Backbone:
């Protein structure tokens, strides 16, 4: 069995172990397997040399044929549509080989992400929820509830991940849900192609996959107001501007009434929003019907610096305390909002 085949078998094994992990020590067997493979078989990466040779051959063959075809009018006339078919077939073959290389390499990153993400949950006492098959229904429900999810992307919108946690602060303790919202933006760009002596410009479709991150929790001290800085669509009739020019340059505040906005945005809360805007990009906050709060932003909290390709470095990273400073900052932000809006304080 060749290197790549053995790597496939090993990756399938550790993926299964990672998916079933319930605590950090369950990863010990994974790192033992990785080191055993590295020492006995070789590097934990795919050997794509033969595929790159095929790519080079296809590129040279395709480039040579294209030059001969387009620089030789007699050959163009003789082959006509068949020539374009040959060029298309060579290009397609090259794309297929490149996709095979990319797909193989991505599996190593995906398994590394899985292990890292689960360990973050273990270290921060978070519980990932099984939402398989329900992501689009959850998005549609949130679309009805919060402006954050309206006018956001063009297609493929769904909740990709949902995590539950419990915050215990100095003054307030509360459960919350952290979500990852997946959506795709569609746009078009002009592309000019020269076919023979004819130049054709067409608009080609492009897509950009994006994510938003957020918290959902109960906030029974206000309702139907939003403080937003990045997208969404909020259907509140009153726009309110606090006296802070810095705040108004970043945020737009809308509510059902001026009184509701003034009551929520006390001076200390305005300052807290400004502090948050320096740490979180695209910060939006809304309290909807029945005191349900959504806090959304554009930047993720955690990223790994190593992978299963280097078992020793990755194990050291995973075995460290993977804190989530942005999540903790969000929790203290919510605590501040509760403190200044809770009549009991």
Residues:
């Amino acid at each position: 069995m060749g290197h790549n085949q053995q790597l496939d078998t090993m990756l399938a094994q550790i993926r299964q172990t990672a998916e079933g992990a319930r605590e950090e020590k369950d990863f010990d067997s994974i790192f033992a397997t990785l080191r055993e493979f590295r020492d006995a078989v070789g590097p934990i990466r795919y050997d794509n040399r033969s595929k790159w040779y095929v790519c080079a051959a296809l590129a040279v063959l395709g480039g040579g044929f294209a030059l001969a075809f387009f620089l030789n009018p007699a050959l163009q006339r003789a082959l006509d549509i068949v020539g374009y078919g040959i060029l298309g077939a060579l290009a397609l073959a090259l794309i297929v080989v490149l996709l095979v290389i990319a797909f193989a390499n991505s599996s190593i990153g995906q398994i590394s992400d899985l292990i890292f993400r689960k360990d973050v949950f273990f270290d921060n006492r978070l519980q990932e929820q099984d939402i398989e098959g329900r992501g689009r229904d959850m998005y549609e429900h949130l679309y009805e509830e919060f402006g954050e999810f309206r006018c956001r992307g063009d297609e493929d919108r769904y909740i990709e991940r949902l995590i539950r946690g419990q915050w215990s602060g100095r003054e307030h303790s509360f459960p919350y849900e952290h979500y990852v919202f997946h959506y795709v933006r569609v746009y078009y760009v002009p592309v000019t192609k020269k076919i023979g002596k004819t130049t054709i410009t067409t608009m080609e479709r492009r897509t950009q996959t994006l994510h938003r991150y957020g918290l959902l929790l109960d906030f029974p001290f206000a309702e139907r107001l939003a403080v937003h800085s990045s997208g969404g669509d909020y259907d509140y009739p009153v726009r309110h501007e606090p006296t802070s020019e810095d705040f108004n340059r970043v945020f737009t505040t809308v509510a059902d009434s001026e009184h509701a906005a003034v009551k929520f945005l006390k001076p200390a809360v305005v300052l807290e929003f400004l502090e948050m805007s320096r740490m979180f990009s695209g910060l939006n906050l809304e309290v909807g019907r029945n005191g349900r709060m959504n806090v959304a932003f554009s930047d993720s909290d955690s990223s790994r610096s190593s992978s299963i390709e280097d078992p020793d470095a990755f194990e050291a990273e995973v075995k460290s305390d993977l804190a989530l400073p942005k999540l903790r900052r969000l929790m203290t932000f919510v605590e501040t909002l509760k403190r200044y809006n809770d009549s009991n304080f």
In short: The two ends are 69 Å apart (CA to CA). The CA atoms of residues 137 and 280 lie 27 Å apart. The mean pLDDT is 88.
